[in-house]
Design a protein that fits this description.
Blueprint lengths: L1 H15 L14 E9 L4 E8 L3 E6 L2 E6 L2 H12 L1 H4 L4 E2 L9 E7 L2 E6 L5 H17 L2
Parallel strand pairs: 5-7
Antiparallel strand pairs: 1-2, 1-6, 2-3, 3-4, 6-7
Helix pairs in contact: 2-4
Length: 141
């Protein structure tokens, strides 16, 4: 039963993250940003969805958790994803040379999706990636 609920919640996060109505605590809280990180030597496949109500749903290796962000952290994340720097990014950034252990990132906010791979991450995306990675780390038991 727990596995079914986990799969349903993960499906909700991934399928509806860009729309209001898929939150863990408040179904009226819109999404601020959705982040997806894959790759690396260990084969990471992590997702973070941050909501306006300061909650963040984190999926890591199939384990789901919800955490509450500090108001200052949410303000900083919101500022980064609404900045002209982020909004002016291209849709995709690929490195000149591919590698088997590189991370790939996808950030969706405000109707804009940006994809990048290690070795080609623009500065305007690096701060957002750092914040999302910190949320993943904080969610670990």
């Amino acid at each position: 039963m727990k596995q079914i609920l986990t799969l349903l919640l993960l499906g909700c996060i991934l399928a509806l993250a860009g729309a209001a109505g898929c939150t863990s605590n408040d179904t009226s809280s819109p999404v601020v940003v959705e982040y997806h990180r894959t790759g690396g030597f260990a084969g990471f496949n992590d997702t973070v969805v941050v909501y306006e109500n300061r909650t963040a749903d984190v999926s890591r290796h199939g384990d789901l958790s919800t955490m509450t962000l500090d108001a200052a952290d949410l303000t900083q994340i919101r500022a980064m994803v609404t900045s002209d720097s982020f909004q002016s990014l291209r849709d995709e950034y690929l490195p000149l040379y591919q590698g088997y252990d590189l991370f790939s990132y996808e950030v969706t906010a405000g109707g804009k999706t940006v994809r990048a791979t290690d070795g080609a991450v623009p500065e305007a995306l690096a701060g957002i990636i750092s914040e999302m990675d910190a949320i993943i780390t904080q969610s670990l038991p």
